[in-house]
Amino acid sequence: MHSSEDPRPAPADPAAPTAPDGVGPSVGDAPRQPPAVEPYRHPAAGWGAAKSVTKFLVREGEYLDGPRAIMRMNHEDGGFDCPGCAWPDDLKGLKLDLCENGIKHVGWEMTRKRVDRAFFAAHTVTELSEWSDFALEDQGRLTQPMVYDPETDRYRPIAWRDAFELVGRTLRELDDPNRAAFYTSGRLGNEATFLYQLMARELGTNNLPDCSNMCHEASGRAMQAALGTGKGTVDLKDWEAADALFILGVNAASNAPRMLTALAAAYERGARIVHVNPLVEAAARRTIIPHDFVDMALNKSTRTSTLNVQPRIGGDMALLRGMAKALLEQSAHDPKALDRRFVERHTSGFAEYRAVCEATSWAEIERQSGVSRAQILAAARIYRDADRSIVSWCLGVTQHEHGVDTVREIVNLLLLRGNLGREGAGPSPVRGHSNVQGNRTCGIDHRPGREFLDRLREVCRIDPPTGHGKDTVATIEAMNRGEIEVFVGMGGNFALAAPDTAYTHAGLRTCALTVHVSTKLNRSHLVHGRQALILPCLGRTEKDRQRGGEQSSSVEDSMSMVHLSRGMKRPASPLLLSEPAIVAGIARAALPDSATPWEWYVEDYDRIRDTMAEVLDGFEDFNRRVRLPLGFRIKQPARELVFLTPSGKAEFSAAPLPDVVPAPGTLALGTMRSHDQWNTTIYSDDDRYRGVKNLRTLVFMNPDDMRERGLTEFDPVDVTATARDGSTRSLHGYLAVPYDIPRGCAAGYMPEMNVLCAIGDHSTQSDQPIMKHLKVTVTAAAARRKEPAAAG
């Protein structure tokens, strides 16, 4: 079993399953077990989560530090921010404001296992390339900087000074600073983020690709156009006051588990909750909140939904249009169906939007959404009857060709009833990674605004470039054309997270130098340029001591709250450096004559924050405000009904509905995480909430679609995606699993299925890879192959 891509060169594919019997890649040293799938009938979180966390901490050997860290995570009084999702900290100061995935992520970081010079001396890169991604990360924490030696095909130790000089010299020798790209994952704190973008711009480039380019770019562009802000307008207090919550394309139990607390509380106070997702996930049924000790003791669960709606993949926009159409039709005899006063005072483009709704037939809405008119009307009725509504969404909405139009449609629906600028109402995108929103706020943007660049020029006394830089997709394309010579990755696992796996790998290998700042060994260290560095950094849980004393870093959550995070554990190695120190070291080596006080900044992060306060809108008096209980919320003009749009009003969008109905014989496939996974980090081959055991190389299908293809449970299949340019990419020997998913739809796990998303298959609206809407065929597997098959 393997994957193949054509026409591009295909290096060894880490996503391919290794077992000849169709079972997914084995985790750890445990013997391979047969796959099993059975419905999960228990509440989300609760005892299942407690058991899973205990098992995980025992496996990692974290008997003392693990529980101690749990008591310090997400605490305002000197605790560290969870390195997992970006859900806000509880307003009541709960002592256990945490979740299963957060604890696993912390335990994964705090492991006692080490990857030191002896490990690298014992293993070549060629050998390590054959290991599974779980096995690579399971080796433990990186302990010192390493440089690739092509003669021995091994990484060997290098002094920090020499590592910085290697990066600096390579950057200095570039004939154009735009031949370098500086990638950022969400793990980077605000202070390091600010220094990182400052370095790139002082070098002369806006090539600042980031993980938002692959996740929520559509959200930012849509809300910026509609409201004059790239962020949601609500906070946790609004969630506590809403009469209705609409959750679109979100698997909360796995991707933002602390949202379960808000959902359970909302249901108990009588709010209506509507989940919109092709799969009915565990969070859309019932939950037991682990820190609710009475409910845990009584095994008492709480419902988390009023209505579950299952649109076809890509059908969310049609569903929203149907809800709006229902309100407009009802407004002829129900004056409360629309907030006419709000629409007249605060919006622009309503007449055009009304016209496009009237012109869209119910038959077309039903066909495109895959949802019956009766169920759409039921959702619309809940929305009509609620005085205050919040609409929340995640990647199930954004990773589509029409992601921007869909988010605009969310805003349209909110505007119709004036659900903006008041308590308990508004748009609420769910960022899936801690501080990914803070990265963008603090300057990681390949399309920076003129006002930001002007402030940077004035305060930091540099001459920043004004042209657009390259985003993630453009960076990969440029690497393959030989136009990017240096790639620096701050956190993350770029080689696995990006689309079109083989093409991404080929691009990285064209670079003269690849540099990865990391905490653990991962695939990106093995897919490298002619020269390569691994620079190990402190984790979020570890103490950061600089000349000015013990430091803290700030992060921004999904709801624009900024607060401090301070590590509590001794670093995994005395040779680790903080992310700000690594950025400053590279910057000084690359810019030896720079007037920027890089070393002075690193001595005391308050100094970085003072500069940020002068540059960043909303960060005034940063050092004082960030030390307030729970930090501070960045000001949000749209929340106050101040719209920084050309019209000065909130803008309706009148985009036509896209055609998302799969062609005969094809399926729309969306990639997703399993429950026992965090982004590209995989903890096991299980997916508890979907009832899957010992299997990742699978494709979930509607039972009728399986019967149509003559398939039964666990039959091996070939999954082939056809790109816009006509090329194909295939995964062979995956196992078909029947599941409650709409006809014409399928789903499977990332990062393994990222291989199916061609680099050219990105949204023309947002430039995001369309990983949630791939056009595929699924057929019974051909004879088992031991060599890569030719692409179709």
Can you characterise this structure?
- The chain contains 30 helices and 34 strands.
- The chain is an alpha/beta fold and 792 residues long.
- It has a six-stranded mixed barrel. Strands 7-6-19-18-17-8 form a six-stranded mixed β-sheet. A five-stranded parallel β-sheet has the order 13-10-9-15-16, with helices on both faces.
- A hairpin with a 5-residue loop joins strand 31 (716-722) and strand 32 (728-738).
- Helix 14 crosses helix 18 (373-385).
- The longest helix is centred in the first third of the chain and has 15 residues, at 46-60.
Q: With helices defined by DSSP (H or I, 4 residues minimum), what is the helix count?
A: 30
What name does the CATH topology of the largest domain carry? Rossmann fold
The helix content is 25-40%
Instruction: Report the end-to-end length measured between terminal Cα atoms.
Output: 16 Å
Which labels suit this protein?
792 residues, alpha/beta, Barwin-like endoglucanases, Rossmann fold, 4 domains, six-stranded mixed barrel, 34 strands, disordered N terminus
Write the layout of secondary structure elements.
Layout: E1 3-5, E2 36-37, E3 44-45, H1 46-60, H2 65-70, H3 100-110, E4 114-115, H4 117-122, H5 125-128, H6 133-137, E5 141-142, E6 146-149, E7 154-157, H7 160-172, E8 180-184, H8 190-203, H9 217-227, H10 236-241, E9 244-248, H11 252-255, H12 259-268, E10 272-276, E11 286-288, H13 293-298, E12 302-303, E13 307-309, H14 316-330, H15 340-346, E14 347-348, H16 350-359, H17 362-369, H18 373-385, E15 389-393, H19 395-398, H20 403-416, E16 426-429, H21 436-441, H22 450-460, H23 472-480, E17 486-490, H24 494-497, H25 501-510, E18 513-518, E19 531-536, E20 544-546, E21 549-551, E22 553-556, E23 561-565, H26 579-590, H27 598-603, H28 605-615, H29 622-625, E24 632-633, E25 650-651, E26 667-672, E27 677-678, E28 681-682, E29 692-693, E30 698-701, H30 703-708, E31 716-722, E32 728-738, E33 745-749, E34 774-780
Parallel strand pairs: 3-11, 4-5, 8-17, 9-10, 9-15, 10-13, 14-25, 15-16, 17-18, 18-19, 26-33, 30-32
Antiparallel strand pairs: 1-32, 2-29, 6-7, 6-19, 11-12, 20-21, 22-23, 23-24, 26-34, 27-28, 30-33, 31-32, 31-34
Helix pairs in contact: 1-3, 7-26, 8-26, 9-20, 14-17, 14-18, 14-20, 23-25
